[in-house]
Design goal:
Elements: H1 4-21, E1 41-48, H2 55-68, E2 72-79, H3 81-93, E3 100-104, H4 105-113, H5 126-130, H6 134-138, E4 141-142, E5 145-146, E6 149-150, E7 157-161, H7 162-167, H8 179-193, H9 206-209, H10 227-242, H11 252-260, E8 266-269, H12 273-280, H13 282-286, E9 288-292, E10 301-303, E11 306-309, H14 317-327, H15 330-340, H16 362-372, E12 377-379, H17 387-402, H18 408-423
Parallel strand pairs: 1-2, 1-3, 10-12
Antiparallel strand pairs: 3-11, 4-5, 6-11, 7-8, 7-9
Helix pairs in contact: 1-3, 1-4, 11-12, 17-18
């Protein structure tokens, strides 16, 4: 199944150039209320496909905010994935900008590098910034500017087919802790059962998992063209040839298919994977357990976060930031997690029993394991300008080397030049 945000990002990134040409740094056309603290302020708050499932939650949180801020009225608008792109850019370029908008990390950074959203560092107190998990907050930062507030998130866990693991003579009660140990488990499963370890997508997160920076420190040039990257790719190449990893660029739908058909013993995914495997293969679901995801050389776990941004053309930037802070504070995020089964990006939230107590179901175990990973979580495109384009370039290069047999040295040299060219755009 495709990530529902993918088509949104692809379209929005293409349309962004039109928006930038139209001038993203111009002043807002809505009347400002900054000179009179008693004037009524209306904030437009946009989300993506959260109605009607979470209407009651948002109606309540908005009512609470308006009660505490009687001069502010929140106008909540929710748009489907295939409509919000044109709506957002048309509104902003037409001088009628929304004030708080829900975007993912990749596109929040992309808009930030174009000057299209506010730098939150100019508005947040140190306590407000420190409320979020460091790695997740830093995923919105490029240079010294933070382009979004982290909202709900998710981290990957390791799902294991307990039946296949036990058939291979392994103990699921003592799961692998490192990526190297996971590979050894996968190799033993291949030898004993004939099944592969897991399927994977050929994406840029493979670099930071292995401790390889994608860009240099100031994000001005590629930093991955080195012997460590070559060694990592050769290792994957060998594992694919041995059948320990499926030799394919397997998207999420394919990974579900392989796991449901017991062609692999492991799945590295977020807790939402459970919904798909439960429907596709109830018997496999009943044999599945969730454990912490083994870490690679980078010592990190990947997060996939949603954020709140304030467009640069908001007529009420201070009020907009205040509302975004309220929506993403620990109390609000804990409440949302309980109705949406998401993970919070705030440190205080995971102290709630909701994230620590289990009824022994797979869903509860995955949630607890995932929450315990938040202190090591980071978005794998941390502060990367033009992240979508760089992601795509890396994927094409990995496909050419691992699936098409392209020369590694030449492909990495070409990729380095391509990425440096993207950074100059």
């Amino acid at each position: 199944m495709k990530n529902p945000y993918k088509s949104l990002l692809l379209t929005l990134c293409c349309l962004l150039l039109v928006f930038v040409i139209g001038g993203c740094s111009g002043g807002a056309t809505k009347p400002s209320s900054q000179d009179d603290g008693n004037s009524q302020v209306t904030l437009e708050f946009w989300t993506i496909a959260l109605q009607p499932t979470f209407t009651d939650y948002f109606n309540q949180v908005i009512a609470d905010y308006e009660k505490a801020h009687p001069n502010v009225r929140i106008e909540w608008k929710d748009y489907p994935y295939d409509a919000i792109t044109n709506k957002l850019l048309t509104s902003i370029s037409g001088g009628d900008s929304p004030d708080v908008v829900n975007l993912n990390t990749e596109f929040a950074s992309q808009m930030g590098t174009k000057g299209a959203v506010l730098d939150m560092n100019k508005y947040l107190t140190p306590d407000e910034k420190s409320a979020y998990f460091d790695g997740i907050f830093e995923s919105t930062v490029i240079g010294d500017k933070a382009y979004a507030l982290p909202w709900y998130t998710g981290t990957e866990v390791l799902f294991m087919n307990k039946k296949l693991v036990e058939q291979a003579g392994l103990d699921p009660a003592s799961p692998p802790q490192t990526r190297e140990e996971l590979i050894e488990w996968a190799r033993q499963i291949k030898e004993k059962t004939g099944k592969s370890g897991y399927a994977m997508q050929l994406v840029s997160k493979l670099f930071p998992i292995d401790g390889i920076p994608i860009l240099n420190e100031d994000k001005s040039a590629a930093a991955f063209n080195n012997p460590d990257t070559e060694a990592m790719i050769r290792n994957i190449q060998q594992l694919m040839e041995e059948g320990i990893i499926i030799k394919e660029d397997a998207d999420f739908a394919k990974q579900v298919q392989y796991y449901a058909g017991e062609q692999v013993a492991f799945e590295l995914a977020g807790p939402t994977f459970i919904n798909f495997i439960k429907t596709a293969a109830p018997e496999v679901y009943s044999n599945t357990i969730a454990v912490p995801l083994p870490t690679g050389k980078g010592g990190v776990r990947m997060s996939n976060s949603m954020n709140l941004v304030v467009p640069a053309k908001s007529a009420h930037p201070e009020e907009a930031v205040q509302f975004a802070v309220f929506l993403t504070n620990a109390d609000s995020q804990t409440a949302f997690s309980k109705v949406a089964n998401t993970l919070p990006s705030t440190k205080a939230s995971i102290e709630d029993p909701f994230f620590t107590e289990s009824d022994k179901s797979l869903e509860a175990e995955a949630k607890i394991v995932s929450a315990q990973s938040l202190d090591k979580a980071t978005d794998y495109m941390v502060g990367v300008p033009n992240a979508k384009d760089i992601n795509s370039a890396i994927t094409r290069a990995l496909q050419n080397i691992l699936l098409n047999g392209a020369d590694m040295t030449k492909t990495l040299n070409d990729l380095e030049q391509e990425v440096n060219g993207i950074l100059q755009q």
